[in-house]
Amino acid sequence: MARFTGVDFYEIDGLLSDEERQIRDHVRDWVEDRYLPLVEKAYEDAFFPAEVIPEVASMGLLGATLPEEYGCAGVNATAYGLAMQELERGDSGLRSFASVQGSLAMWPIYAYGSEAQRKRWLPPMAKGEVIGCFGLTEPDFGSNPSGMITRAVRRDGGYVLNGAKMWITNGTIAHVAVVWAKLKDEASGREEIRGFIVEKGTKGFSAPEQKRKHSLRASVTSELVLQNVHVGEDALLPNVSGLKGPLGCL
Ligand SMILES: Cc1cc2nc3c(=O)[nH]c(=O)nc-3n(C[C@H](O)[C@H](O)[C@H](O)COP(=O)(O)OP(=O)(O)OC[C@H]3O[C@@H](n4cnc5c(N)ncnc54)[C@H](O)[C@@H]3O)c2cc1C
């Protein structure tokens, strides 16, 4: 059977650099040879074939646009977009896995995190050894995340989180969650949305999988449950507050 060569109705190919085309073609071949043979069973049986994670990582696709000093590929946004387009062709769940890891978990740590948070989390996340998720949507607030109910309060030199998130890609397989919650600013008394890094295994935190989806079946989708979850001061992403934090990732 002839190999897939893509469709290019607007002749965009000629606008790409050699490197961008090479990355696109490499990911296309990998999807064709490696992922398409797996995905039908994964979709039917509703699981994400996690054995491909090291391969996706070795292609530099996790946090692809982030700098090389954090173990990332440092490619441009066009190359990243082309790679995600090819993963999406394999299955939307595969693209969701990679883009949630890169854009929704690694990117906020890079853009809003401290240098210590970047150094700790980004290199193992680029290698696919640490999986991340992004907890914004809640059972009662999806399109309007500013209404979120999840709250953080300052206590004992850290924060206590309470709330629930829903429809969270990678949630159950994630080692770390970027959770958005409202925290009262002590100076102004106003509540502001802040981002927190919550590690799997933290007491009071669980991520049960949401089963029986009708779509995106080859993708892990989960609830995040936060019941008096105590995290340290270093869990807070220091460099952003307000809805622009999560919206900047999306
Ligand atoms: C498979 C899957 C994976 C996901 N992964 C993540 C994730 O990793 N992290 C995360 O935080 N979230 C995730 N989400 C959640 C996703 O971002 C939300 O589903 C989305 O924001 C919509 O929220 P909702 O489902 O509550 O729908 P609702 O907000 O209840 O909207 C329902 C419908 O009403 C429409 N609507 C809503 N408000 C208005 C309005 N004011 N005017 C007109 N129409 C309106 C919407 O367009 C939609 O058609 C995921 C969802 C799915 C299905």
Radius of gyration: 19 Å
- Major sheet, described briefly? 7 strands, mixed
How many individual β-strands?
Answer: 7
What amount of the residues lies in strands? 15-25%
What is the average per-residue confidence, as pLDDT, rounded to a whole number?
96
Number of domains: 2
Q: Report the end-to-end length measured between terminal Cα atoms.
A: 38 Å
- SS content category: alpha/beta
CATH architecture of the largest domain: Beta Barrel
CATH C-level name of the largest domain: Mainly Beta
User: What is the fourth-level CATH superfamily of the largest domain?
Assistant: Butyryl-CoA Dehydrogenase, subunit A, domain 2
The CATH topology of the largest domain turns out to be: Butyryl-CoA Dehydrogenase, subunit A, domain 2
Question: Counting H and I runs of at least 4 residues, what is the number of helices?
Answer: 6
Q: What ligands does this structure carry?
A: flavin-adenine dinucleotide
Helix content: 25-40%
Spans of at least 5 consecutive residues with low confidence: none
**SSE string, helices as H and strands as E:** HHHHHEEEEEEEH
Q: What is the molecular shape?
A: globular
